From TrEMBL:
Taxonomic placement: Eukaryota, Metazoa, Chordata, Craniata, Vertebrata
Gene name of the encoded protein: Ppp4r1_2
First and last residues of every HEAT repeat: 115-154
Keywords linked to the UniProt accession: Repeat
PROSITE patterns, per the entry: HEAT_REPEAT (PS50077)
InterPro entries the UniProt entry points to: ARM-like (IPR011989), ARM-type_fold (IPR016024), HEAT (IPR000357), HEAT_type_2 (IPR021133), PP2A_Regulatory_Subunit_A (IPR051023)
GO cellular component: cytoplasm
Pfam families assigned to the protein according to its UniProt record, in alphabetical order: HEAT
Organism annotation: Heliornis fulica (sungrebe)
Name this polypeptide is given: PP4R1 phosphatase
Gene Ontology MF terms in the entry: protein phosphatase regulator activity
Length: 267
């Protein structure tokens, strides 16, 4: 019954955590018994079972419970097969979604060598716009995962394609992640390539694309600032934040001989 398999998948992560904490007693139980089930359910015929398997896999990866050899020899090959051009449409959409989510929790080497080539192919998928949209929505995360060199060499050309896609939802998704992409590139690429590209989005014929671009304008401009002097930086979750300078912090501390009244504090 699919409901039984789905329930089983939901129990895998807590069992795996227990086995990890009790590893001297169960040194190989997870790798021998549980990991093969997770991998098998990624190709289950029932979509709810597959979804549960994908969620379980991501939790296991986030908890660093999956061995590097299993990632490279078992997990990645399955996802590459599911996202291949001849794969079933539903499987392909699910696989590219998992690939994008995995990128932030895998090592840079694994992402660049095993997943990046397929991601670049999927960005140009002419059959399914859903696949391209997932790629566009997660583009900033992929750039962050592989770093500047691979971003400028392989990803920026694909980003240009997506920014001029015939589907306006694709262009809107690109506008929304523009800051994250810009932050990964060098100042020269930011100035000579991304700035003209951003102008094209802010002048787009679709008002939803223009609106998204205008909302990203400030964050995009912030990537031109020097973090050491401006205090602007990107957190691990991709959001823009401000690190106050020591001078600002000190200036906010009241002197010992000053008493703040409630009215002045409110002011």
């Amino acid at each position: 019954e699919p409901t039984v398999r789905t329930e089983l998948m939901e129990q895998i992560p807590p069992i795996a955590i227990f086995l990890q904490e009790s590893r001297p007693k169960f040194p190989t139980a997870f790798f021998e018994y549980l990991m093969p089930i997770v991998v098998r359910y990624l190709t289950d015929v029932n979509n709810q079972v597959r979804k549960a398997g994908q969620e379980a896999l991501l939790i296991l990866l986030e908890q660093d419970l999956v061995a590097q050899s299993d990632i490279e020899n078992k997990v990645c090959p399955i996802l590459l097969d599911l996202s291949a051009p001849e794969s079933d449409d539903e499987y392909k959409v699910e696989a590219v979604n998992v690939i994008c989510k995995m990128a932030s929790v895998l090592s840079r080497t694994t992402v660049e060598h095993m997943l990046l080539p397929r991601f670049c192919e999927l960005c140009s998928d002419g059959k399914l716009f859903q696949v391209r949209k997932i790629c566009a929505a997660n583009f900033g995360d992929i750039c962050n995962a592989v770093g500047r060199e691979a971003t400028e060499r392989l990803l920026i050309p694909k980003f240009f394609e997506l920014c001029s896609d015939s589907v306006w939802g694709m262009r809107k998704a690109c506008a929304e992640c523009f800051m994250a992409v810009s932050y990964t590139t060098s100042p020269e690429v930011r100035r000579t390539k991304l700035s003209p590209l951003f102008i094209s989005l802010i002048s787009d014929t679709c008002r939803w694309v223009r609106q998204a671009a205008f909302q990203s304008l400030g964050p995009f401009i912030s990537t031109f600032a020097n973090p050491s002097s401006a205090g602007l930086y990107i957190r691990e979750d991709g959001t823009l934040s401000i690190r106050p300078s020591v001078q600002d912090v000190n200036s906010c501390q009241p002197s010992s001989n000053i008493t703040l009244t409630s009215s002045s504090a409110n002011a």
